[in-house]
Amino acid sequence: MRKFEATWQPTQADFDVFAKISGDDNPIHVDPVFSANSKFGRTVSHGMLIYTKLWGLLKRNIPDAVQTYQEVMFPAPTYAGDDIDLLITETSQNKFDVQATRRSNGENVLVGKLEIQ
Question: pTM of the predicted model, to two decimals?
Fold first, then answer.
């Protein structure tokens, strides 16, 4: 079974660019003043930005992959400056578990599954 790993450190610039591309400009992602008064205390990553980092890791290793299924959850926030460990583990042919973990405390910020053809 295959396994792919990488580390990513998101930045506020990443959040801002993803907001422009996706159209999701929720202030929790892009407005530090607003976010300072939220339960998170600062801006947080879009969940799907984290997923795109995982998908990009898979595509670097399996360039012709076409996604047929995904299921993801975001159990904890991701902040700019966090070191995030990305892990994709093949569980059976064309099926993978995906995980993003905050390195500082081992907390999962994304867990899920994906399938490709």
Answer: 0.95
